[in-house]
Amino acid sequence: MKKKVTIKSKQPNRLRLGIYGGTFDPVHHGHLLLARDALEQLRLDAVLFVPCGQSPLKTRKPLASDIKRLAMLRLDLKHNPRFWLTRCEIDRPAPSYAYDTALEIREAFPHAKLFWLIGADQLAGLDQWHRPDDLRRLVTFVLLPRGEPVAKLPRGAVLGLPHPRRVDISATEIRHRVKSRLPIDHLVPAPIAAYIKRHGLYLS
Question: Which DSSP state fits 106?
Fold first, then answer.
């Protein structure tokens, strides 16, 4: 994993790093708000965005290409020095296993405390992930609420944010609005809305 960001923590052996995986097709205000909440409420040094390659649990591929999803992420993350980006899953052969990603991040940051940020829609299938018990030994899962709050967290290493925010924005909604020629400026940062329009993404 190539990492260009200098760790500014005064105690690098105690680095607290959030890992935020997702399709990001496209990245939107909901992703960024929840990442900021995790950064502040968990006192993280940084959040590492991991755009997915091909999930073993999903057959549908992202509509935007890997290059375009990376480009949209870079448009916003470059303004947030504590939001980092890796293309490790995109560069690895499919399928993309979270366990392999966690191992790669652990190698890059051997002394960090790793927090894997997940959405409520991922909770039910967590035990279906590749080597879930080994993954739990590498990371602490943190629930990022979206839509309706989760009444009860499952047993195991799953934390909730101290002050959860309800965010009801989805990439599916954004793609539908683009296809329907409706504005999306209120749902994504302006540079990303401009990029989507310029490249004609999600029109078909």
Answer: H
User: What's the confidence (pLDDT) of residue 158?
Assistant: 72
pTM for this model (two decimals): 0.88
Cis peptide before 95 (omega within 30 of 0): yes
What are the residue ranges spanned by the domains of the chain?
13-166
**pLDDT tens sequence across 9-24:** 444 567 999 999 999 9
10: exposed, middle or buried (C-beta count within 10 Å: 0-12, 13-18, 19+)?
A: exposed
74 within 8 A of 83, measured Cβ to Cβ: no
Q: How far apart are CA 127 and CA 116, in angstroms?
A: 15
The owner of tokens 């990371």 is 139
Angle ∠(74,80,82) on CA atoms, nearest 5: 110
- DSSP codes joined into one string, 4-59: -SPP--S-GGG-EEEEEEE--TT--HHHHHHHHHHHHHTT-SEEEEEE-S--TT--
Tell which residue, 3, 21, 142, 6, has the closest CA to residue 89. Answer: 21
Assign 5 a pLDDT band (cuts: 50, 70, 90). very low
Q: Which CATH architecture has domain 13-166?
A: 3-Layer(aba) Sandwich (3.40)
CA distance 98 to 52: 9
